[in-house]
Amino acid sequence: MSEPFRDPRLTTETRVGDLLARLTLAEKIGLLHQYQAPVDRLGLKPFRTGTEALHGLAWLGPATVFPQAIGLASTWNPELVRGVGAATADEVLAFHRKDPAGAGRNVWAPVVNPLRDPRWGRNEEGYSEDPWLTGVLGTAYATGLRGDGPVLKTAPTLKHFLAYNNETDRCVSSSNLPPRVLHEYELRAFRPPIESGAAVAVMPSYNLVNGRPAHLSPLINDVLRTWTGEDVLVVSDAYAPANLFGMQAYYADPAEAYAHALKAGLDSFTQDDANPEATLGHLRTALDRGLITEADIDTAVRHALSIRTRLGEFDPVEPQEEIGEEVVNCTEHQRLAREAARQSITLLKNDGLLPLCAPKRVAVIGPLADVLLEDWYSGTLPYRVTARNGVAERCETVYCEGVDRITLRAEEGYVSATSDPIGGPLGIGASAEFDVFDWGGGAYAFRSVANGRHVSVGEDGVLVNDQPGPNGWEVRQTFRMEERFRGLVLRHISTDQYVTADQGTLRLTDDPDAATLLVVDLVESGAAQAALAAADADVAVVVVGDHPLVNGRETEDRADLALPQGQEKLVRAVHEANRATVLVVSSGYPFAVTWADAHVPAILWSSHGGQEYGHALADVLFGDADPGGRLTQTWYRSAGELPDLFDYDIIATDATYLYYRGTPLYPFGHGLSYTRFTYADLTLSSDDLGPGDTLTVRVTVTNSGWRAGEEVVQVYTHQQRSRVKQPVRALRGFEKVRLEPGESRTVEIGVPIEDLAFWDVTRGRFAIEDASHKVHVGSSSRDIRLCAPFTVKGERVPPRDLRALDAADHDEYDGIVLCDAARERGDAVRSAGPGAWIVFRDADLDGKPEQAVLSAASTEGGVLTLRLDDPLHGEVLGTVTVRPTAGGHDFVEAATALSPATGVRDLYVVFENEGVTVRTLGFGR
């Protein structure tokens, strides 16, 4: 072979080095965009990053659609999740063969952001609120995507680095991330897929972290890339680079912003779709201005070429050439989709109604009973097996959608609609009927009875009945119904404009006073019709939940966790008519189904389950299979139990099952079986361990019921004594077992003692304390069957050395936010109001410090008081005056003499006014 970069016998490093040396500077710059330019003279083809493959191949045409990611996670079956990833990779390869430009092999999946808050609009894209479980499942899916051989099938990309759990103001909001939360929670989910080699690329998130855009985070190079010896490709999120000098205004111009992004570790700019000219021009300008060097460009290009080399692009033989179009939606993938959906279905409550015992007639009811919905990152469904379809294959069914049918009456006449199948403008004239879908959060959709199409708003602002349902990036098919005196008006959610009758045609207006007043006349009550259907059946199955594109999705968070009022009314009416009611919730996030939990005898949950959902649901309803799902999130009783959406400090706010001390509706790990399991003979390999050891937990699980079933044996630990606030309990391992009636099995789970470490802010590293712990074993985080104590011989965290402190490394705080100490790196703390404070616990004053020096900044100037043991009434150690500075990054030294003090005390820094930033503190003589 004349060109070493084409020789697969050589190392990736050698091949990339050879290829990089052959490229001109202009050619290398051409590789820094999402759409990498071809290099014809070397035979390099165009290359594009970014094929969506979250739960199956998306956006490119019909392909196997598996359950949403949160549904895959609820299987608690990493091997199954890996299999779904492998099937998805095969379908990506098949599409790539057919259309290399349209289906690239760099896939943007999985999403490993821990699901800190269930109101996050993209909750369905993640796996769990537990970072360890997220890492396990993310590694499994990425392993399937990459394949088992030395040549990658696809190049999996982890999303979204870092601390990204809000859609509201997502491009300008900053996630407040204390060091412990960063290291113990956020980073812990990202590390395993990278460290194991399962994922080979990472995408930063839109938000800022501690005041610095995530795309500029020093953690990319300083931490993330240290987890592996392989090159990691870092790709930007779509249009995020322009935010750096646009909405975020972090740098003054594009060249400066792009230069800093490149140096921070960004290798590929996803900007302006397939038009790289502007981006590459900004990078050339940065090079001309000396903001970056050719060596900086080489570093980024090396990362990109490494991935392409590992994909086998430069090999003499095309990799995985045996995979063809026949794999797309093949029989095996359909079987896998059904199994994944079946294992994801979670039994939340059962008073004995399930499994159904040969019912003659089942009423299948609800707005989700005869539809399958695609989320934004779904593939195109090749076929649909709905709940109604699945049940109808088993017994006689009666179906009722359960939505209200109405007319809308204006002063001039009724709202009219065409019966033309392709739709047309809505007007005022002859009365037309509409079915109303309540998707929650005040969002309603209207389906025209005349042609069965949903009402939408065209680009010209005219209302038309021409859509199959809510769809697209800009959902134009939903409205709010705002009460007015003697009627209501319609407000279009996407445009925030009102509906008016203009010369007989309904269109949008900016003027709320011009909105047409409408009166709703009920033609048919959905709840009443559903009750009639339920009363005439042996069993009623009510299928409710969310629409994945409405009231919670990318760009839109949820305000609460309540079922939509229309759906709640439906469930109550059906249950009143027939007590043998099964509630089936299909959603990408938890709902606060508190009334149903108190009244309905059986409740099932699953995510939107993909093409085989109806078959899987019927398998569980009729007892062909045990419900295999377990929750990977806490289900709260209301959104009132959650902290502020923007507060990322799960430790301070008692958030997630790790720290939550309330009584959840359904706890993390919860899920019932149709049989019973008993636990016995819990033993530990040792009750006295140290760093480097592994605790082996053994327990015998017996199926003590009358039928076969599945149990997820979960092992948690709790540290009983600590310098810091510890989790109530933390998941350390699990095993999913299937047992026949009377069968017993001894489950063995290893817990590395290193996993018990916490981030010690006093020394900037992980520490394993000398402490007592307990093992908790059970079927959920709250259903603990057996416990056993053990002791860890670790270290004692010494008193804090005061000679040099980073302000961000405090122990606790009140009224402060973390911010950037400088544009490139470093964190600081800033007061959000007078009386804010940070505390350094166990501060060692035995050196008898005489002076404190603070590095601080404040455009208005300020005063800080150093107190001992209490922020309000504690002994004053000193008072520091900060003179006004030019800006938030212009730090000055401010000093004060200290009152005599000795011993180990809690040191408070109290901010007497707003807007003072402190970066470092030092105490000495």
Shape descriptor: globular
The CATH class label of the largest domain is: Alpha Beta
The main sheet comes to: 6 strands, mixed
CATH topology of the largest domain: TIM Barrel
Q: Runs with pLDDT <50, length 5+?
A: none
Strand element count:
48
Q: What is the number of helical segments per DSSP (H or I, 4+ residues)?
A: 18
Radius of gyration: 30 Å
Name the beta content range.
25-35%
**Widest sheet, order of strands:** 1-2-3-4-6-9
The helix-and-strand class reads alpha+beta
Query: What is the averaged pLDDT score?
Result: 97
* Total discrete domains: 5
CATH architecture of the largest domain: Alpha-Beta Barrel
Q: Please, what is the CATH homologous superfamily of the largest domain? A: Glycoside hydrolase, family 3, N-terminal domain
Helix content: 10-25%
Distance from first to last alpha carbon: 69 Å
Structural overview:
There is one protein chain. The chain folds into five domains: 4-318, Glycoside hydrolase, family 3, N-terminal domain (TIM Barrel, Alpha-Beta Barrel); 333-401 and 527-626, Rossmann fold (3-Layer(aba) Sandwich); 412-516, Trefoil (Acidic Fibroblast Growth Factor, subunit A) (Trefoil); 675-792, Immunoglobulins (Immunoglobulin-like), CATH 2.60.40; 805-924, Sandwich (Jelly Rolls). Helix content is 20%, strand content 29%. The radius of gyration is 30 Å and the shape is globular. It is an alpha+beta fold. The strands form eleven sheets. It has a six-stranded mixed sheet with strand order 1-2-3-4-6-9.
